[in-house]
Hints:
The protein is α/β, with parallel strands linked by helices. Helices cover 31% and strands 18% of the residues. β9, α9 (208-216) and β10 (234-239) form a beta-alpha-beta unit. α1 packs across α2. The termini are far apart.
Amino acid sequence: MNDSAAVPEVRVFADARAAVPVLLDELRRVIEHGTRPLVGFATGGTFTAMLQALGDELRGRRIDPGAFRATHLDEYLGFPPERRGGMVHELGTHCPPLLDMLRDGALLPVPHEGSPSGLRAHEERLQRAGGVHVQFLGIGRNGHVAFNEPGTSFATGFHVTTLAEATREDARARFAPGEVPRQAVTSGLATIAAAQRLVLCAFGAAKAAAVRAMLHGDVGPACPASVVRRHGNVLVLLDREAAGGIAATTASG
Length: 253
Ligand code: F6R
């Protein structure tokens, strides 16, 4: 693959917290312009502050939980929503109103058992809900997005994947003292790229090399996050540390 791609809008903030209002505005904007649009959340430390702030907005009815549907990127294989360490469990811990949405069928969970028919049915459910309007994304130190590890084809839909050792290492604290799972169910790069808008966040110096590869390296499976340069509607939000390796960007916040 070559590099004939779109240049994402990049904004740099003093710290991760300063990006939270921008993330909530992204959500508000799709709600204003759509009929119960489908919002794709990501999990991980990058989004903890946003999910907590969203929980406050939903509880205070400053954002109407009935005005959108939700889904998320990935789940550890064999982790049902109530299991600690899992992604739905994490979403509900930081943003309890999402559990009400799960109960009401308005949060479409990634099928944790990973059967081919279950994954097909999930893709169809997302389609019936109108497809993902805005997809929030984090990035791994190794350039993964969702759990598409380096080497994953850009043509993939939802699939079961084996986690890279760096990914398992980064997840150790959430499973301690237990073992980190080896496999996960993940949205694929084609499914992610089908979202109308992508909003990718990276915070902290540990992400700087991956951010640089995403924005300035070759577009291709060696850096799965470089898929954002195959999409024409992308916002990248960074803090100063994560932006440390890239050329001049728009400073904010
Ligand atoms: C999680 C996900 C992962 C994370 C990434 C960054 O749903 O899709 O790709 O976004 O591993 O994780 P944190 O935010 O913990 O650094």
